[in-house]
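Work Package 3 committed the consortium to producing structural models of liganded targets before the mid-term review. Because experimental data for this complex are still outstanding, the team generated a predictive model from sequence and the ligand definition alone, so that downstream docking and mutagenesis planning could proceed in parallel. The input record is reproduced below exactly as it was submitted to the modelling pipeline, together with the SMILES string for S-adenosylmethionine.
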Amino acid sequence: MTEITKGNSYTDYQLAQIYDPINEADHDIQYYVKLATEISAQSDRKLHVLDVGCGTGWLAVELAKLGHKVEGIEPAFGMLKVANNRPDSDLVNWHQETGSSFNLPNQFDLIVMTGHVFQVFLTDDEIFSVFDNLYAHLKSGGMLAFENRNIEYRSWDRWTPDETRETVSVPDVGDVTYWHDIIEEKGELITFATYFKFPDGREYRDDNNLRFLPQQKMKQMLEDTGFRGLEWYGDWDQRPFDPSQREIIVHATK
Ligand SMILES: C[S@@+](CC[C@H](N)C(=O)[O-])C[C@H]1O[C@@H](n2cnc3c(N)ncnc32)[C@H](O)[C@@H]1O
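The resulting structure, written out as tokens with the ligand in place, is given here.
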């Protein structure tokens, strides 16, 4: 039987390389690009944008190619290496930091957290320390925009091996098969494993925790931090949020 090695999808370069082929849908990228374009048109100038938990840098580079000045915050070596290998990566300033540790001498027009980065913050203390840091790095009138999966929609019910198993073609690696499996559901915290099977027979397992913070708690914590003018959407077509929707997308103003 093949031995399964413990891996980390974000810090291990060999697993980080698989992130983009797995996450090919670009609804969220299009959404945040459109948002930046609209804010830029209103102010009649290009923006200074911060992408927190920027991962492989897809959105950050797209925004930079449109002429915005972009900084990417990302703690994981593997993801940053993929970002650095991306065409036009030199248009973005990359920082190996977390959402609570970064300290830049700038205040931004727009801060984004995409790909459900928000769900990696597992405790109230961690969320507040990230929100406080983002608030301090926003210009007055600037916007924080990010999304969270709606706990009431229970996306994880579909994270079974049968429903998620897929084979993707990874440049320089070949066909990689991956699937998810739920390990534990405990209130707002979901623990799940992702398995990866490489063409040469290597197998990896990465265990992750995500928090599904309900919308009312998000609202309270954003307001307690000082954010105002909260706007809520339920999906990438900007339909209004209601509890039946899959996403909780929020725009919050300083
Ligand atoms: C699901 S990926 C999303 C990446 C990217 N934003 C996207 O849309 O594809 C989550 C990212 O959050 C990063 N991350 C983990 N802990 C973090 C922290 N404390 N602060 C900021 N980012 C973090 C991970 O390394 C990973 O790149």
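Reviewers should note the following from the model. The chain has a mean pLDDT of 97. These observations will guide the Year 2 experiments.
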